[in-house]
Design goal:
2 copies of one chain form a homodimer. Chain A is mainly beta and about 575 residues long. The first copy, chain A, is built from 5 helices and 32 strands. In chain A, a hairpin with a 2-residue loop joins strand 20 (about 360-370) and strand 21 (about 375-380).
């Protein structure tokens, strides 16, 4: 008993240490009318905003987000994109994989550690809610005393997005319609939540579009002449691959998905949904004028106007239009420069994470567009993925194996050797399934993303694939069909970049390597919202037996209702 | 052991008896594009249809509906309107009151007995989903050998509805907006799911409206000359009070909300949301032509065109337009005939349910429109009702009393004597609350619905109030302010009709009496979708200790998550 004061003192120290490293957010999610591109529609906001609040933290901090769902009839879940959720796989926020959705009226606590400095994102991971505006930035700083391998004066974050005027319900219902109805090109491109739609477009009711609404004033990036800015750029487009540029200013790429890259200079940055980059830009041009910031849709023919913002040299007025015509950006169908950028991204020499020189397993994921029954779907190795209604993490941990199909998907399709990726898919029986890949814990896995021709002849799209729970090394890109015996010889096993999202280019392949060392269940999918909805994804399980006791807060749906014992 | 054959035989008899009385439905709910009034929008369908399938049963049958929620991100719940749910209060389908909502992917089993012949309805009871098209008819026949106190040749059901082009999300977001945005007049009136909107209305995109779509061909009621039809009419309007008529044909009202009425003849039937009537109509007019069926919005000034159908004398072509101009119906603001119809509805003399001559408790519910903070709300006794997120039935049965406010609402407001119903509400502090009335089991309760002036001077609306779990006797209507000492002397305690839904007319009052003899928790609310959303309702508890073990299928939301024990 005489030690009580000491114990209290110790407790206080521990608490104060702990408190310094916990960042606590209280967020309320609801529908509100917003006009991000001047057209008024329902947007899912966080605390009244879209994009939502930026999470600012330091490496090693614990983030606590108490998320209150104030939607009327609709559930929600938020994914912390790029955060590996080590020791917290239940906090990944992927509905159907790691948690049941959060019901209206409920408050769900996300708690996880941001264990590595860098630029990350968060967004809804349920249905197609991301498209409704539920997204934001996560910026994790280095620990005190540590420095990046580059210098800058100021730090800024923006998220690039595309924007549809239809509701996510309509978009999803179109994709499920027979005959299939495509979601169409986005109506506009947003830069940090701001875009511009032409209200004089025929068929637009006057009271739903107002170009003088301050919500759709152009995005302004104000700079002081001579200063260097670290601009953290993330893309959360529903569909669009983008080219981003700042008129008259080069950008030096220094970070990708939280990893430092060997710096390289670009005039325009290609960025795919789910990727983040840091670029350095110096305000070293004529300071008496402003410059255009341009976001342009590439990789597919489209009708979407470029997104425009203003690079504003202080003290010019931020709304002063640049005297020039905005740069028109690269041609949408010029694949070469995009592949070249992919190839240019290598690890910074001082920050190389050694890549295992061999792998234990190779999984070749053939990406095809297929017809299943009368629907159009995307399939991976002839399987169009569907989410189960009981989250895998719970099913696997609590032995509810009847809730999903137990036959695993194949590591390579039968007849892969003979498959001609240059032709539309032959009429083969693609099916839907919610089966998953089970990976041996701590093994090294190679994934080959193999692109192919779509249903329509002469067309192959770019797909940005995002892996939950891991970073992977990008060990190779190639044109055409992957050659199992030859191509691995040319892998970059010296200084490959680590990323969490990577494109597979039209008619090409991309090779990744990762170590299955994070106990949990992890989605890996095309980050195009409608493509994942149409089945373009797989799921990996690893080390489920090492996952600690699951919080009951992730339960309540599907077969987990059997756990209700009042 | 030698009795086994006998036991088997008995079991078979029991099973076959039991099976004959169970009506099993498998329904799948999802969003589909439909054009009920020629304008294409997302509709919640059941098995591809809106209105959904009609439930056809016989008195005493058990209805089993396995409801699969195939909405993408949205929950659902269905209320069986007019079914008292004796011994099954958990099957009432009222989200927040009797159950947690049904999650996407889940299949919920509703199981209840239809214990009385008559005309009933079902519809969503969650958010404003009813407006999205999730509704249908329940028709319960008399037991074999029993006959109604009227004769007819054929039996038909229709549901009248109003129809909005905005999504329910937009409607709800408007009502919650600051400043308040009204939902507006309905775009059209539907008769059994069919209406007609003018596609040439300015601002309507050509590809979203098509007057030649067969989905919006007019409703046709084909009759054989000389025959008499029992037409069961239900209204599930979101807003509109309606007048319904068949050009040139009188209608004899014979049933109201499942009770036989002393027959009376009308030219047009006034019907409020939540009510059902059976009328007899005889095809006794010139059979060489067709006649108009007209549904018209009354009780509030409006811009909604009348709904038109065709009363088709066989063998005339069903699409042949009548040679006449459709009847224009009664003036919207002529209250007298509507009150007169209410007064005319009395119990059929051979089917009188004796009404208790005294009551144990009187609750006067003052209906006012109020501003709370900056919102517009409806309040009952200065309390604007909000639903809790843990259903009352579970909270009360399992002692989760912290989940809602425990101070009960008042039986009459302070200062009721001095309240002037002819003026806009004085600036008094209406509040929001989720508290409920607790009724002593088996007592007789009088409810006085007292109407009043709205926020705007010179205006008082009609509100149809619907009681769950009971029928009530309609013992009186009056103009102006209810007089506690005098008006009860004039109650009809001889042959009042029993109903589950009743209007309170502008600046008037309606008096109801019911016996609190159905263990459970029961909503009582204005059936106008937006009014309930804005707080116009109360909840009654009675005999909670007599409620049997709750099924766990109704749990999983709010505080019931604490019951999850894997």
């Amino acid at each position: 008993m005489k030690n009580l004061p000491l114990i209290y003192a110790l407790l206080l120290v521990i608490l104060s240490l702990a408190e310094a490293r916990i960042r606590h957010y209280r967020w309320e999610v609801k529908y509100e009318f917003k006009s991000p591109d001047c057209y008024r529609k329902l947007v899912i906001t966080i605390n009244g905003r879209s994009p939502g609040p930026t999470i600012l933290a330091q490496q090693g901090d614990t983030i606590v987000v108490d998320l209150k769902n104030s939607l009327l009839t609709e559930n929600v879940a938020i994914h912390w994109h790029g955060i590996r959720q080590i020791d917290s796989p239940w906090a990944d926020g992927t509905e159907g994989v790691t948690q049941c959705p959060i019901l209206p009226g409920d408050t769900f606590r996300y708690k996880f550690v941001v264990d590595r400095a860098g630029t990350y994102l968060y967004h809804a991971h349920y249905g197609m809610q991301r498209e409704a505006g539920l997204y934001g930035s996560i910026r994790v700083a280095l620990p005190a005393g540590e420095a990046e391998p580059f210098v800058y004066d100021y730090d800024r974050s923006i998220i690039l997005n595309d924007w549809y005027h239809r509701s996510t319900y309509e978009q999803a219902a179109r994709l499920s319609s027979i005959p299939f109805l495509w979601v169409g090109d986005p109506q506009s491109l947003l830069i940090q939540g701001k875009g511009r739609f032409s209200c004089s477009t025929p068929g637009i009711a006057a009271d739903s579009c107002n170009t003088t609404n301050p919500e759709c004033s152009p995005y302004v990036f104000t700079v002081v002449p001579g200063k260097t800015y670290r601009l953290r750029i993330g893309s959360l487009t529903a569909l669009a691959a983008l080219s981003f540029e700042i008129e008259g200013h080069n950008m030096t790429v220094v970070e990708a998905d939280g990893h430092y890259v060997e710096p390289f200079v670009v005039n325009n940055l290609f960025i795919y949904s789910g990727e983040t980059y840091s670029v350095l830009v110096t305000a070293n041009q004529d300071p008496t004028r402003n410059y255009w910031v341009v976001s342009k849709m590439v990789s597919r023919n489209n009708t979407t106007p470029n997104g425009l913002g203003i690079f504003n040299y202080y003290p010019n007025h931020p709304s002063r239009s640049p005297p020039t015509i905005p740069p028109s950006g690269p041609r949408w169908n010029d694949v070469g420069p995009r592949v070249n950028q992919s190839l240019a991204i290598r690890s910074h020499p001082d920050y190389i994470h050694s890549v295992p020189q061999t792998s234990d397993r190779m999984i070749i994921l053939l990406n095809t567009q297929n017809r299943i029954n009368e629907s159009v779907k995307w399939a991976i190795n002839n399987i169009s993925f569907t989410l189960p209604h009981t989250p895998y993490l719970i099913s696997l941990k609590h032995n509810l194996l009847h809730t999903f199909e137990q036959t695993p998907p194949p590591d390579v399709i039968n007849g892969y050797e003979a498959y001609n990726i240059s032709n539309p898919p032959p009429y083969i029986s693609a099916t839907t399934s919610n089966s998953l890949y089970r990976l041996k814990f701590n093994t090294t896995v190679d994934i080959i993303l193999q692109n192919a021709n779509m249903i329509d002849a002469g067309n192959s799209e770019t797909h940005p694939w995002h892996l939950h729970g891991h970073d992977f090394w990008v060990v190779g890109y190639g044109n055409g069909k992957f050659n199992v015996s030859e191509d691995p010889k040319r892998y970059n096993l010296v200084n490959p970049i680590m990323k969490n999202t990577v494109p597979v280019h039209p008619y090409g392949w991309t090779a990744l390597r990762f170590v299955a060392d994070n106990p949990g269940v992890w989605a890996f999918h095309c980050h195009i919202e409608s493509h994942f909805y149409m089945g373009m994804g797989v799921v990996f399980e690893e080390g489920i037996e090492k996952v600690k006791k699951l919080p009951t807060s992730i339960m309540g749906c599907g077969d987990t209702k059997r756990f209700i014992k009042p």
